[in-house]
Task: inverse folding
C-alpha cells in the first residue's frame, strides 16, 4: 500500500509485506522501468530509497537488466536494507541497445518473510564522458542531484535534462 512519509524524498512510500520466502527471489519484485531508450555503452545507475520496517534487516538482490527473455543482467548488487531511509544504488553498463519499456532496475524481494518501504526510484543512463564521470561516483555523487526533487519523483527524461544542464554548466 502507499503511505505518506515526510521522512523520504517525495513524501510517499510504497509499503511491501512479503508473507513468506518465495521459491525464487524474483517471484516477488519491484521494478523501475525506463521511459527512454538505452544505448550500448551507456553507464547505468539504479538509485532508490528504501528502509526495512520489520524487526530485521532485509536482504535484496538488485539488478539493472532487460525485462524480456533471456533477461540479461547489466549490473547487480546484494543489498541489505536497514531500518533508516537510505539511498541505495546499483551500477552497470549496457552491452546492447535496449528500447524504452524493456529495461529496468529490479529489486528481488522474495528472499524471505520481510517488510519494507520503498520511496522514489531513479534509473539513470549516462551517454557523455561528463555524465559517466558523475554516475561513476555512485550514490554520493548523484544524491545532491536527486535531492533537488522534493515534491514528486521526476520522469527519467526530466532528470536526464537536468543532468545534461548541470553537465553543460560545469564545462
Result:
Amino acid at each position: 500500500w502507499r503511505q505518506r512519509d515526510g521522512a523520504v524524498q517525495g513524501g510517499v512510500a510504497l509499503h511491501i509485506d512479503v508473507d513468506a520466502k518465495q521459491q525464487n527471489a524474483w517471484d516477488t519484485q519491484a521494478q523501475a522501468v525506463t521511459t527512454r531508450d538505452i544505448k550500448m555503452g551507456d553507464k547505468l545507475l539504479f538509485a532508490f530509497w528504501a528502509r526495512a520496517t520489520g524487526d530485521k534487516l532485509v536482504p535484496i538482490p538488485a539488478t539493472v537488466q532487460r525485462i524480456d527473455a533471456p533477461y540479461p543482467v547489466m549490473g547487480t548488487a546484494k543489498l541489505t536494507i536497514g531500518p533508516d531511509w537510505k539511498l541505495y544504488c546499483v551500477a552497470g553498463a549496457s552491452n546492447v541497445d535496449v528500447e524504452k519499456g524493456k529495461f529496468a532496475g529490479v529489486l528481488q524481494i522474495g528472499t524471505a518473510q520481510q517488510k519494507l518501504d520503498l520511496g522514489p526510484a531513479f534509473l539513470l543512463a549516462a551517454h557523455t564522458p561528463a555524465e559517466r564521470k558523475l554516475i561513476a561516483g555512485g550514490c554520493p555523487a548523484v544524491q545532491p542531484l536527486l535531492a533537488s526533487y522534493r515534491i514528486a519523483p521526476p520522469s527519467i527524461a526530466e532528470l536526464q535534462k537536468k543532468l545534461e544542464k548541470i553537465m553543460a554548466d560545469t564545462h
About this structure: The chain has a mean pLDDT of 81.
